């Protein structure tokens, strides 16, 4: 019995289809990054590494003078934002990068990056005794060159917008924090559905998670595998700071939730090595009415598999 011949789309034609459709997920990725398109969309010049099949664009930070250990640091010594593109596995391209940011740029830029479909994977410092303080935000993602490069451009444009409005980085989020603490615990306990800790007008709620270390030891809440939220100030003019512990697949949802509520992210990193499942920790700082802040934290908690109590009306 004869089988009917199958029509096979030539691989070059398949790649043309992917290019025309913006890199449809699941189709064959491009042979190499579209360097001209990346330069046009990001507004940056780049260089192609043929051996690794990577096209990398960079933007030195020379708009603000930075001193580290009382030494004027040139951008060559580690003050350069960059984004590197290569063919993806399930989409046209993937990107990884590192953005050099000042404190008042971090959260606006993070929101722009997340809205553009990029992932934010780390936020930390590289130096001690830097003036002004410099932070590094790592980004990643897989999708079309159009989407990824446009996202990188939007993040860098946000930096320019902030510095055009205020050439020197801000030294605070703004607004006075009350010196006397008088947080009422009961409304916050009702939001979280748990009994918290009170101390001299401050309040703290803690939510544990479970993990296993490489040695086989089970670790939980008291060993530091926990999310917590601490409140100070007054019920109407409060601050909240704390730490989220999230699994890798929960991180982006929690970041988006907190940023939607205008909670500032101040660090994203790990606390352990060799743990299972892998845990990421993010630290945050927010200002506003205490109950609103508590609701924002609870909403973000619901984006994880953390066990939380039932909220009370």
Keywords, please?
313 residues, Alpha-Beta Plaits, 2 domains, 6-stranded antiparallel beta sheet, 7 helices, 17 strands
Q: What can be said about this structure in brief?
A:
The protein is α+β, with helices and mostly antiparallel strands and 313 residues long. 26% of the residues lie in helices and 32% in strands. It has a 6-stranded antiparallel beta sheet with strand order 1-2-5-6-9-7. Strands 10-11-14-15-17-16 form a 6-stranded antiparallel beta sheet, with helices on one face. It has a 3-stranded antiparallel beta sheet with strand order 4-3-8, with no helix packed on it.
Task: Write down the domain tally.
Answer: 2
Number of strands: 17
Strand content: 25-35%
**Main pleated-sheet profile:** 6 strands, antiparallel
Strand order in the largest sheet: 1-2-5-6-9-7
Count helical runs: 7
- The topology string of helices and strands comes to HHEEEEEEHEEEHHEEEEEEHEEH
| Secondary-structure content class | alpha+beta
Mean pLDDT: 92
Helix content: 25-40%
């Amino acid at each position: 019995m004869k089988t009917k011949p199958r029509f096979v789309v030539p691989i070059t034609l398949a790649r043309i289809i992917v290019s025309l459709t913006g890199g449809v997920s699941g189709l064959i990725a491009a042979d190499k990054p579209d360097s001209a398109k990346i330069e046009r969309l990001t507004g940056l010049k780049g260089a192609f590494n043929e051996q690794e099949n990577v096209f990398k664009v960079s933007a030195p930070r020379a708009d603000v003078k930075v001193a580290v250990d009382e030494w004027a640091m040139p951008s060559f010594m580690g003050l350069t934002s960059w984004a590197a593109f290569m063919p993806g596995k399930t989409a046209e391209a993937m990107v990884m990068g590192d953005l050099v940011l000042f404190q008042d740029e971090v959260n606006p830029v993070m929101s722009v990056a997340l809205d553009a479909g990029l992932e934010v994977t780390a936020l930390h410092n590289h130096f001690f005794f830097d003036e002004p303080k410099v932070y590094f935000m790592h980004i990643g993602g897989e999708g079309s060159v159009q989407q990824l490069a446009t996202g990188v451009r939007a993040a860098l444009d946000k930096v320019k917008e902030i510095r055009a409005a205020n050439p020197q980085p801000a030294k605070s989020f703004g607004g006075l924090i009350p010196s006397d603490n008088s947080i009422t615990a009961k409304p916050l306990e009702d939001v979280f559905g748990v009994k918290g800790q009170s101390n001299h007008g401050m309040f703290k709620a803690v939510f544990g998670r479970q993990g296993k270390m490489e040695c086989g030891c089970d670790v939980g809440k008291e060993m530091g595998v926990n999310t917590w939220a601490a409140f100070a100030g007054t019920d109407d003019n409060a601050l909240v700071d704390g730490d989220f512990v999230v699994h890798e697949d929960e991180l982006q949802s929690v970041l988006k939730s907190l940023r939607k509520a205008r909670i500032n992210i101040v660090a994203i990193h790990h606390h352990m090595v060799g743990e299972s499942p892998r845990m990421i920790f993010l630290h945050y700082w927010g200002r506003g009415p205490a109950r609103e802040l508590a609701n924002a934290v609870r909403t973000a908690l619901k984006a994880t598999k953390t066990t939380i109590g039932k909220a009370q009306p």
